[in-house]
Structures are given as C-alpha cells and as structure tokens.
Amino acid sequence: MPTNRRTTHPPETDPRFDAPLCGMGVDAETRCAHYATERDVIALRFPCCNVFYPCHACHDAVADHASQQWDAQADLDERAVLCGACRTVLTWRQYLNAEHACPDCGADFNPGCTTHLHLYIRDRTRQAPQ
User: Fold this and answer.
1) Phi-psi region of 50 (alpha: psi -120 to 50; beta: other; left: phi over 0)
2) Mean pLDDT by 10 residues, the chain (130 residues)
3) How far is residue 13's CA from residue 29's CA, in Å, rounded to a whole number?
4) Is 71 part of a structural domain of the chain?
5) In degrees rounded to 5, what are phi and psi of residue 121?
6) How much is the pTM?
7) Residue 6, in any domain of the structure
8) Which residues, 6+ apart, have CB-to-CB distance to 106 below 8 Å?
9) Which of 6, 30, 75, 114 could form a disulfide with 84 if both were Cys (CB 3.0 to 4.6 A apart)?
10) Residue 120 lies in a domain
C-alpha cells in the first residue's frame, strides 16, 4: 500500500543544523535521497515556508504546500543558501558569484545545481508579458 508523504503539519526540522532543515535521507552535509554526490553540499531556503531543503524534490515530498521561488531582482541579498560543509548561510548573490565553491570554507559545490536555478529563483525578465 503506497504511503502519502504529504504532511498536514509543518515537518520536523533536523536537529543537527542550526537553521531549520528538512528533507529525505539528509546526511550531515545536506546531501539527500535525490542528490548525493560528494559536491551536493548545499540546502536552499524556500520563501514559502522559511525552511531549508537540500533540493526541490525534498520540498515537494515533505512540505504540505507548493513551493515558491525567490525573485531574481528583489531577493539576491536574501540569506538562502546553506553550505552543508561549514554551515555558513550565503546570500543568493554570494552563492551565484562563488564559482561553485563555498567562499567561507572552500567546499566544492555541484556545478550542475545551476541548471536547476529556475526552480528556486524566478527571473521576471524571462516571463511572458501579461
């Protein structure tokens, strides 16, 4: 019998982290059941719930609401990217300018994550006019 993974209350956060963090199969450096390579060491804070998740699939599996995106123009200085290696929380601007490594501890970030940015950041300049 399949189980319903949607919650009807806020998910419990992982006590290993100072920041509120949830996900599926999260390890000590924020790798998850969906992304678990050596370089998958970031978690992203979602504006809809103010909770960090290792990826969009973790949010979709655990949260009881639809995800929302950050605004590419207005939210670049939001502290929304958690380095799982050193626990530093970066702004989007710091993360995007970091060249795939934590500016604080030097941990390598997965460069493939940038192909998923559209799931986390909404670029109003690329949306169709209404």
Assistant:
1) left
2) 40 72 93 97 96 97 96 95 95 96 98 94 63
3) 15
4) yes
5) -125, 125
6) 0.83
7) no
8) none
9) 30
10) yes
